[in-house]
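User: quick one, fold this
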Amino acid sequence: MTLSIEQRVQNGIDLLDQLGPKDWRQKVILKDFNIAHGCKCVLGFVFGNGEEIETEFDGLKRRRNGFGIGQDVLGCYPDDNGFDAYGPADLMPNDEYRRLIDIEYAELQAEWVRRLSETGDAPVAVAQPSCRVRRSKPNCVTI
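Assistant:
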């Protein structure tokens, strides 16, 4: 069963309320928010301050975005919690599927902005989503 956009975002809010930092809402900068960007999405701001950060795992240092770090910290599937679209953005088999993913990102963007704006914790100026992003690229470059 596919969850609605509203339920997925509510799941993400509940998860962050339970396991995230207490001030997670204040960390999301809505004027720069872009759900399709690994550094500028909810997890990107909450766990990476909107930038890549250097992490160490098993003695190896590497740069990661908050989207990847957040998944590790929360131990969650990002799509069921409103942090990502259901389809993998890097593996679009055709233009129609890419179009549907872009629509889903736009819907997720709008719902997160609506929910975060309700609390009054984040600035209300909002960036439009740029959905042509490869989350797997560690340098957060848009394509």
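User: anything notable?
Assistant: Residues 5-119 form one domain.
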